[in-house]
Each structure stands twice: as structure tokens, then as C-alpha cells.
């Protein structure tokens, strides 16, 4: 497998001395979680969480930008020590790497046009309702399992799903909350629509959230990262970072 060249950016010292630098991989292309700003500096929720963890764990850390498909192979090859890049803790990945505790979770939600009068979102409430999902997603599998009486349209990609809702091809869509949040809040088309109903969290379909990926034998770093995560969640640092990027809790 070919690997992208690793770009080392913004080394930062969290106060540790005479210890190995911990290299942390991010993709740098997934706003608002990790991205390069106009000055080519890393920004985002993942980046701020990583800095806070290194500070709490008294680690000297350095960021590495890594193309997504090479994330786990490069970790296992020792090119860096941790992945803090919105990586979901799937069973397939757990067979290759060790994950810390979850550091955020993105529920699945229904979204409709603002003028839609739908109130209930149980399967019996949505019988015959035109419901959209994206092909190959956990949301598609969930709808097929629980909402078979809805009139389901499967769109090839998320932009098509959002367009279908905005233009009225479907009445309701089911989507990852954080994935659709930027469209709802930062695009003209997305202003048509709003979240509906309660957040849906089902580990069988939607996983256990995002964790920090480490090599399986790196037990000391696992212990340090988990302890640091406990610290920033207890002292308010996590909530401060959460509020900087999202007006709702994503723990």
C-alpha cells in the first residue's frame, strides 16, 4: 500500500521534559473536527481535544497530517503514536488497534423541512412517509430494519440526500447529526430544514462513538490518554471545547 508523505505541523510542549514526543495523526480535511485554516494551521475539535489531552497528560506532542486510508497502517508501522481524527470505534478497527474511551459520540437524527407537521417518529408514525437515507450507511440499514413500512428512497450520497429533502423529493431524512449539522447551519439550502425528534443512539447500528486509536501494545499511552480524558471531562475543558464548535453536547 502506498502512503502519503507525513506533514509535521505545530509541535507543542505540554510541559513534559526528557520524554519521547507523542506524534498524533489527524486527517486535516474534516471540518469542523480537523482542518487547515487559511494560514495552513491545524484547527478543529479533534485538534483542540488533542492539545488538551497532551496538556492534562503532561505529554510533549506533535501533529502529523495523514491521508485517511493510510491512518491505521501508518499507526501500526510506527509513523506516529495515536490517531485523534474522528475515528469511529468499529468492530473491524478494534481487530487492528486499541481504542481509548469514547471522546465523542454523534447520534443519528431525523431532519425535515421546517413546515413539516410530523410529530411522532416511531415506525408506526412513519408508515407511508417519504423517508430518505444515503446508500451504504448505517442509517440505511437501520431504516430497513425498523421502518420498512415507510416509503424509503435511497440516495447515492449525502449531498443528494440533502438536496432531496430541500427540494421536497422526501419529507424526512435520517442522518448522522454532526454530518448534517454544517449543512443545516452554514448553507442557504440547509436553512429550509430542522432536526426532528430525539437523538437515536443504537450501538449495534451506529457504533460506540469516536475514540483515540493506539497500537495494541502501547498500554502506557492508553492509560495516560484515558486518564487525561477523565481529567478534561471533569474540569470543564471538554465542555468548553464542545461549546466552541457545537451548540449541543456530543459526549
Task: Note the main attributes of this structure.
single chain, 251 residues, alpha/beta, D-Maltodextrin-Binding Protein, domain 2, 6-stranded mixed beta sheet, 5-stranded mixed beta sheet, 31% helix, elongated, disordered N terminus
Query: How would you characterize the largest beta sheet?
Result: 6 strands, mixed
CATH topology tier name of the largest domain = D-Maltodextrin-Binding Protein, domain 2
* Poorly predicted sequence stretches spanning 5 or more consecutive residues: 1-11
Q: Strands across the major sheet, in which order? A: 1-6-2-7-14-8
Number of domains: 2
Q: Residue-averaged pLDDT, rounded?
A: 90
User: How far apart, in Å, are the first and last alpha carbons?
Assistant: 34 Å
Strand content: 25-35%
The rough form would be described as: elongated
Helix fraction, binned, reads 25-40%
* Computed structural class: alpha/beta
- Quick one: how many beta strands? 14
Give the helices and strands as they follow along the chain: EEEEEHEHEHEEEHEHEHEHEHH
Amino acid at each position: 500500500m502506498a502512503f502519503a508523505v507525513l506533514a509535521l505541523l505545530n509541535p507543542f510542549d505540554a510541559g513534559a521534559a526528557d520524554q519521547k514526543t507523542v506524534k498524533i495523526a489527524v486527517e486535516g480535511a474534516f471540518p469542523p473536527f480537523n482542518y487547515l485554516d487559511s494560514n495552513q494551521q491545524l484547527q478543529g475539535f479533534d485538534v483542540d481535544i488533542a492539545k488538551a489531552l497532551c496538556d492534562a497528560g503532561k505529554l510533549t506532542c506533535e501533529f502529523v497530517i495523514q491521508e485517511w486510508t493510510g491512518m491505521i497502517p501508518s499507526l501500526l508501522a510506527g509513523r506516529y503514536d495515536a490517531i485523534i481524527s474522528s475515528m469511529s470505534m468499529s468492530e473491524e478497527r478494534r481487530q487492528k488497534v486499541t481504542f481509548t474511551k469514547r471522546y465523542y459520540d454523534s447520534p443519528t437524527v431525523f431532519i425535515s423541512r421546517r413546515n413539516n407537521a410530523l410529530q411522532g417518529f416511531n415506525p408506526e408514525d412513519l408508515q407511508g412517509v417519504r423517508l430518505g437515507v444515503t446508500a451504504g450507511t448505517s442509517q440505511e440499514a437501520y431504516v430497513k430494519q425498523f421502518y420498512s413500512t415507510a416509503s424509503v428512497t435511497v440516495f447515492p450520497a449525502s449531498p443528494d440526500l440533502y438536496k432531496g429533502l430541500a427540494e421536497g423529493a422526501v419529507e424526512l431524512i435520517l442522518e448522522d447529526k454532526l454530518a448534517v449539522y454544517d449543512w443545516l447551519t452554514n448553507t442557504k439550502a440547509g436553512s429550509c430544514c430542522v432536526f426532528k425528534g430525539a437523538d437515536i443512539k443504537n450501538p449495534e447500528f451506529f457504533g460506540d462513538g469516536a475514540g483515540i486509536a493506539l497500537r495494541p501494545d502501547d498500554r502506557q499511552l492508553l492509560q495516560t490518554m484515558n486518564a487525561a480524558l477523565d481529567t478534561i471531562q471533569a474540569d470543564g475543558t471538554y465542555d468548553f471545547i464542545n461549546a466552541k464548535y457545537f451548540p449541543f453536547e456530543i459526549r
